[in-house]
Write a structure and sequence with these properties.
Blueprint lengths: L1 H21 L3 H22 L6 H16 L6 H37 L5 H24 L7 H14 L1 H20 L4 H21 L1
Helix pairs in contact: 2-3, 2-8, 3-4, 3-5, 3-8, 4-5, 5-6, 5-8, 7-8
Length: 209
């Protein structure tokens, strides 16, 4: 843990040095990161049009944001390259996610139909779906080309339970995305990048705590 804190302080010092070398203020740097999040949200939305490709899109977007925060090179070309690698196994995860969402929908319909025990089953299903979505976002936040999806999801599931504060932060980001979609559907597109950035920040917080 102490070693992680030292690495975190070193990384912050390196970022500060690079920012000063470019003559860039802290406000300008943070605004640039915010703008990059919105642009990444557009990339994620476009890459998710394949219906089952959303895990790969989120993984590629999160990796792009990690590079941006670390002031490493990377752009749309690198995003596309990461997406192509992530989608090779990620589409199975996407398919499983839709299957789980369909099962929860059936539970909710059963609850509305007045079936005995339906409300309890429906509530459990909704909470399970939210937890699975949080775990998926945490997994995509640490995805690398050589990582296996199922091992990533297993580790993310443990962190979702062991780090409830971070998980609630991600749920807050999802709530903002949902509110944006309710207010004006196009707003949900760039906000996807902010949700990915929130997952990256939560994972960094967990790693260095």
């Amino acid at each position: 843990m102490a070693q992680a804190r030292v690495k975190a302080r070193t990384a912050r010092a390196v970022r500060t040095t690079r920012r000063e070398a470019r003559g860039e203020s802290l406000f300008a740097e943070r605004f640039a990161v915010f703008a990059e999040c919105l642009l990444t949200g557009v990339w994620i939305a476009v890459a998710s049009l394949g219906v089952v490709t959303y895990p790969a899109a989120l993984a590629a977007g999160a990796r792009h944001l990690r590079r941006r925060i670390a002031h490493e090179g990377g752009g749309l070309r690198e995003f596309v390259a990461d997406f192509r690698v992530a989608v090779r196994r990620g589409w199975v995860v996407g398919l499983a996610g839709w299957a789980g969402a369909g099962a929860v929908r059936l539970d909710v319909q059963a609850a509305r139909a007045g079936i005995p025990g339906g409300p309890l089953v429906g509530a459990i299903g909704v909470f399970a779906l939210i937890g699975a979505l949080v775990a998926l976002l945490r997994a995509t936040a640490v995805w690398t080309p050589d990582a296996g999806w199922w091992s990533l999801l297993a580790g993310a599931g443990r962190r979702t339970v062991l780090d409830p504060a971070g998980s609630f932060l991600i749920i807050g980001g999802l709530a903002v995305a949902a509110a944006s979609a309710w207010f004006a559907a196009p707003l949900a597109v760039p906000v996807l990048g902010a949700v990915a950035a929130a997952a990256v920040a939560v994972e960094e917080r967990y790693r260095h705590r």
